[in-house]
């Protein structure tokens, strides 16, 4: 009788339900998935460069955040089998990048999950979201893209809200190099006749779009940074006339990071470096965690430290502190662009005031540039030049409104408090107001959310202090370099 009473009084368990097909991003509703949180990806792939054939097994360690009857994975290649906690699961494709996995046994909230997915395909032939992010090259391939790339080489919960650590292991023909994130826990080694396995490990949580592979013929250069961390740079053997200027830029990575630590706080990851890819391969640079990747064309006019500054600033703003939703992209691009202005000040090539004045005058009031709101650019415009250029102008206006002491305290407080996590614009504004003791709503609203060219008030006028007549001004020395970076970024080939 006592047992019966206890059972009668027990709360009823919630019924198992499918996990949501999206994580809740207002711009990309079906990106990411609900019902579980990933802690680690173990990715093992074999790649045949000539045929562009990829076969792989990815093991996902996760925890259920609800009672689940099914859940989704973001993935575009052909799946051959899925097991959940050792049991064979059924699955079905839904759309071009969703795989719906039906649980072979009930999954309870907080239950640990080991999800093993086997797959194969020719990534360059797979179209999802209207394009192919995977790039086949003459000597291998590049798995690099934003906001999507994982779909073409490993199944994931593909949204910055669900970060995880990564082990990435790639089997390629002997003589082919593989670059990826983090450090190499072991040297490349022969595993079967004619094939070599490359292993990479990321020990800090990483958004899935920041995981990358560069496969092909690369010269790898290693060193140790002043902060004691390993530096791993790589240069395509097909760089031709871009080789020396690429090296003169990317080999300054540890110098740039040391400078940035003084502004943003301690470097947040276990390694650093960069990869220069062959000409006519990609049309952008991307801040892959610990190892930014650069199109050769960034260096066609000579060395370009500004793109190195931009991508390494993202290690704090974008990688360590990721966007909460893709609407918050200004937190990535506005601050990385402004880091270029700070580097320009540091090297004596033009002050942030001068750069603000130049960019403000560059776009006439009638330009459609001003109609894009950096704080809410809309899905088609997340990489619009306004997110970068007006985004940097917005950061400068926030600096002027806060004062330098409070502004630079904000940069370190933001990257420290949200390390390995996420943030949104409202949270940044709240922190800025708490640190400065000032109401900053007008400056945030004007520069991030108003679709017209802002008029310059007293704070904005500080950008022209001691400048003299605009007609007699010459552009800052850094402008040509910085503008080239933004032009390349504006021409991204997603």
From TrEMBL:
According to the entry, every stretch annotated as the Peptidase M1 membrane alanine aminopeptidase domain falls at 250-447
Catalytic activity, reaction form? Release of an N-terminal amino acid, Xaa-|-Yaa- from a peptide, amide or arylamide. Xaa is preferably Ala, but may be most amino acids including Pro (slow action). When a terminal hydrophobic residue is followed by a prolyl residue, the two may be released as an intact Xaa-Pro dipeptide
| Known EC number | 3.4.11.2
Q: Which InterPro entries match?
A: Aminopeptidase_N-like_N, Aminopeptidase_N-like_N_sf, Peptidase_M1, Peptidase_M1_aminopeptidases, Peptidase_M1_dom, Peptidase_M4/M1_CTD_sf
Name the coenzymes or cofactors required. Answer: Zn(2+)
Q: Which Gene3D superfamilies match?
A: Neutral Protease Domain 2, tricorn interacting facor f3 domain
Keywords (alphabetical) are:
Hydrolase, Metal-binding, Metalloprotease, Protease, Zinc
Please give the biological process terms from Gene Ontology that the record holds: proteolysis
SUPFAM superfamilies given in the database record: Leukotriene A4 hydrolase N-terminal domain (SSF63737), Metalloproteases ('zincins'), catalytic domain (SSF55486)
First-tier enzyme category under EC = hydrolase
Aminopeptidase N-like N-terminal domain mapped to chain residues: 39-210
- Cite the GO molecular-function annotations of the record: alanyl aminopeptidase activity; metallopeptidase activity; zinc ion binding
Pfam families, alphabetically? Peptidase_M1, Peptidase_M1_N
Family annotation (PANTHER family): AMINOPEPTIDASE N, PROTEASE M1 ZINC METALLOPROTEASE
Family note: Belongs to the peptidase M1 family.
Name of the protein described by the UniProt record = Aminopeptidase N
| Organism of derivation | Virgisporangium ochraceum
